[in-house]
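Hi Prof. W.,

I finally got the DUF4954 domain-containing protein prediction working! I wasn't sure whether to trim anything, so I left the full sequence exactly as given:
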Amino acid sequence: MTHPDFLQSGNERTTRIETCQHLLSLAWSSSSEIQSVSEQQSMRGLFSDEIDALQQQSCSCEDWSQVRLVTPTATINESHAIGLSNVIQETRFADTAILVFVDEEEDSTENPTWIKKLPPGLHSNLLISNSIIDLRAKVYRNTSICNTYIGPFATIINCGTIDWSSNDHLGLMTITVGAERGGGRPITVHPEVDMPHVVQQMKASALHKTHPSGMIHMNIVDQHALVRDTPTLESIYLHPHASIQGATSISNAILLPHSKIASGSTVQNVMLQWNACIVEHSSVSDTLLMEEAQAGPHSLVVSTILGPDVHVSAGEVHASIVGPNTNAHHQSLLIGCLWPLGRGNVGYGANVGSNHTGRLPDQECTAGEGVFWGLSTVIKFPVDLSSAPYTLVAAGTTLPPQRVTMPFSLIVASGEGNDILPGWLLRSSPYTLARNEAKYATRRKAQRHLDYTGWKILRAETASLCWHARQALLSPASSVSIYSETEIPGLGANRLSERGRLAGVEAYTNCIQMFALRGLWQFIVDNGLQRNGTILLQSELASSIMPPELVNTSNVEWPPCPWETTVDDWTLQKFFLQTEFPLCDSSSEIEWLDSQLRALIQLEQDYAHRVHQSKRRDDQRGVQIVPGYEQFHDRAEDDTAVADVKANAILVEEAILRWLNGKNNGE
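And this is what came out:
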């Protein structure tokens, strides 16, 4: 469900545009008569004493009849000469200028203290033309402000030229992702778009058309917005409390509330949602930054969609979709990468972008949720890891074109190519997953995207991918010492040893079984089932007898995103319960249930132990290598993620044992 702020934001922009259009039409229709603006306000030309008062303050205008004054209707016939002379000084007007004069103090503001101390009004501006200015704003020392609305309590100070380009179409933008040449996937966005709508277009065969909420050929700097120390601004829309501070050049930009462009950045054709920012000498063009996304410092971002809570700094991103909670904090390259579920990392020196075939840069890469591109990796396109979530491409690995469908894997360079270890994170580095689970929960600052960004790592989609991967590992086409894609589809251009195959089967099996048994226990808790009561699980389980067709890794297609899934966890868990733990005729239902719940206790304990051990290995290695390591690094025993997993295992064990002893209903 779309957050209500998305609709409200678009409506507010439409209302502001309609208000400006109304004021301009009134100003252009007459130069002197009193005209009604609204029930509370009216518009008229300046009285002669008001013109004299402004001229005494070193103000000038080629034609004072084109300067219009908007005041409360009750005072429209009164002279405001003294009030105007107090707030307008050393400013030249040209063409149409609409001055909104409201005699009231600012009641609340989030502006910095230095702004609060500035007197309101227009001071020392070389030129203001074709503009609407609320005189509660603070407009100081600007070279030229043209075709601009400045709202109450907004601040524009020390800027060069602010103007509108008639060629710009603010409010709608088409971003081409994937192949940079010889194709590409056009995504049409507006400022309030979310990732599900982006993905819908990405998967579609035709361009999805969207219509902007309203258009006007005029800059908007709305109330409490701040623009300062920027030489060139063209075609901008700043929602309340947005800011542009010390940028180099801005062209065609929409900033939603509390978003920011700052510190020597150069920006063209961008949309920033709430609290998004472009900072520290970054260059960004043809890009949408969703809520809480950040580009900078020193970023180069072109033709890209950055999802909520994405941070990109020091590197380059081109023609990509980067999903929620993805980080590229170091000097790296990301080109033509379709990564809608994000949650990954791009290591220093990673080159995810060999999209040039010697003819055209016409190739692309698809990445699954949580993929980690290691230090100095080289990824040669085309590559598809969309069905291999949480795969880690180890440092220094060169990945040739391939498609991998083994989730939670490690791909590492070896002497004879690359080796793949299916399910390696599940078996050998579960601390990574436990920490990520906690990290995603605590770092989700994008409040307006919370309804679809909070999915769990282990859920129906990922468990189904593990099931398909295990099926492939269990039945290779032939028995050899080293397997390839020929024997086991889904390995990509990588090698797999027999030992690695067996380890992968074990890792996926433990994952599938823990997922299934967690569902069983949750079903008991949710339904308040008593051990000494009537359980009748057999009929419940019989309702799901088909294999998990949630994903189909044998076809080259996108796996479903969490918000697209029609199969819930329990449906898949019931299938796994039947296939992993068949209920034998010789066993009663209650005996079967007791056995499976005790198996869940063991699996949770084993998982907690492996999480602890995978972190503890780092501790042991560090102590052997770095002097004073213990004094300056948290031990596994003190790690929050380790403690949370251990605490959960204890809680599950205690609750199940109480249930098995018939003491309560498992809550």
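The radius of gyration is 31 Å. Does that look reasonable to you?

Thanks,
D.
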